[in-house]
Design a protein that fits this description.
The structure is a single chain. The chain is of the alpha+beta class and 343 residues long. 37% of the residues lie in helices and 28% in strands. It has a six-stranded mixed sheet with strand order 3-2-1-9-10-18, sandwiched between helices. Strands 13-12-11-16-17 form a five-stranded mixed sheet, sandwiched between helices. Strands 5-4-6 form a three-stranded antiparallel sheet. Helix 5 crosses helix 6 and helix 5 packs antiparallel against helix 7. It starts with 6 loop residues before the first strand and ends with a strand. Bound molecules: adenosine-5'-triphosphate and magnesium ion (MG). The site of magnesium ion has 6 residues, from loops. Adenosine-5'-triphosphate (ATP) binds next to helix 5 and helix 6.
Length: 343
């Protein structure tokens, strides 16, 4: 492409837990959405995985911030720092003598208000973006899964992210029904912390609780191939002496039960409002699970059994939104009509 160095095209999934950026059809950034700010100078100390390593280990001069909450910007300055850093990472951290024209497609939750949409666009503009388009996350999910979204056919995607779970029905390149819930990955992590405290008197930090979830997280107690128990070491709340307990997937299935039941109820509520023709398409095709929460072992099985509709986990569910956003960007660049994009 002639003069392609003058324009730079990025697709961005600005998630509560993770930010992914595609450039030239490749993932160039895949980092936790966390920044570390020096509170004395107000400068960016670290971002992404480096900032995540500082979490829970701060001193009074270093503050770690998660700029996104419930899928939208909660801390504008921190979000701007983060987007600027991500754009720089996409460029291989190089300084260039000219500013390229940065065209960006950013995925946002369906429930975003106009003020929240404007905040995302402004943060991206302040960070160097010029031509900014938005796409709703469930639509990006559907594109990223490879569904034919423009057909008159119903599809259902359930994205269980860090901050929110969004359940949407898609047909004719639009969102027919969508509902979201603030019960998602972060709440699962909090459920595990509470369980460890109540059951074992152990205080467990955010990062360790997330490790437990990834190692032994489960949605059913009778997994066919359960993972090995995970050894948790932490301070006993009463004695402050270190204790070690092996935690099993069966226990975690029990401890996540209430949160998972809320997600079930969300799906049922959206199904109830789905027009019958679309409903039968969905039952035939099955429901697609995406987002990091879809990786909870046995979740597809639990939901299939409870709702009597087949559920499947999307390939690489953590990247579905970013893949779909990248597809939308490519279609936009080819000059195709993209009814699912907003400016
Ligand atoms: N293997 C796994 N098992 C269970 N949970 C996981 C696994 N891997 C990641 N997660 C969880 O998935 C969540 C992050 O998912 P994802 O990246 O889809 O969220 P996000 O897009 O950043 O958030 P949101 O969409 O709510 O803005 C985190 O809570 C993380 O702990
Ligand atoms: Mg997400």
């Amino acid at each position: 492409m002639a003069f392609s160095f003058l324009t730079q095209e990025l697709a961005m999934d600005l998630g509560t837990a993770n930010t992914l950026v595609f450039m030239n059809d490749k993932i160039v950034v895949d980092q936790p959405s966390i920044v570390a700010i020096n509170s004395l100078t107000n400068k960016l100390e670290a971002c992404g995985i480096e900032a995540k390593r500082m979490q829970g280990k701060e001193n009074p001069n270093i503050l770690t911030i998660r700029p996104m909450k419930d899928g939208v910007i909660a801390d504008f300055d921190a979000a701007e720092h983060m987007i600027r850093w991500m754009i720089k990472q996409a460029n291989g951290n190089k300084r260039s003598w000219f500013t390229p024209n940065v065209k960006i497609v950013i995925a946002i939750p369906f429930g975003s208000t106009d003020v929240e949409k404007r905040a995302v666009k402004e943060a991206a503009e302040h960070s160097g973006g010029r031509d900014i388009n938005l796409i709703y996350e469930p639509m990006a999910d559907a594109l990223g899964i490879g569904l034919n979204v423009e057909e008159p056919q119903g599809h259902m995607v359930v994205d269980i992210g860090g901050g929110t779970t969004e359940c949407a029905v898609i047909s004719l390149a639009g969102i027919v029904e969508c509902e979201s819930l603030k019960t998602a990955g972060d709440v699962f992590t909090a459920d595990i912390q509470q369980y460890m405290r109540q059951q074992y008197n152990i205080k467990v930090g955010d990062n360790l609780a997330e490790q437990i979830k990834i190692a032994v997280g489960a949605a059913i107690s009778d997994l066919e191939t359960p993972p090995e128990p995970f050894d948790v070491i932490g301070p006993n709340l009463i004695t402050a002496y270190p204790v070690k307990v092996p935690v099993t997937s069966m226990e975690i299935a029990h401890c996540l039960d209430r949160s998972l039941a809320k997600i079930e109820a969300l799906i049922v509520s959206v199904l109830e409002r789905t027009p019958p023709e679309l409903y039968s398409d969905i039952v035939k095709e099955g429901i697609h699970l995406t987002g990091g929460g879809a990786l909870i072992r046995g979740l597809d099985k639990r939901l299939s059994e409870k709702l009597k509709i087949p559920f499947s986990v999307a390939e690489d569910p953590l990247k579905a939104v970013a893949r779909g956003t990248n597809l939308a960007l490519k279609n936009l660049s080819k000059g195709r009509l993209c009814p699912y994009l907003m400016r």
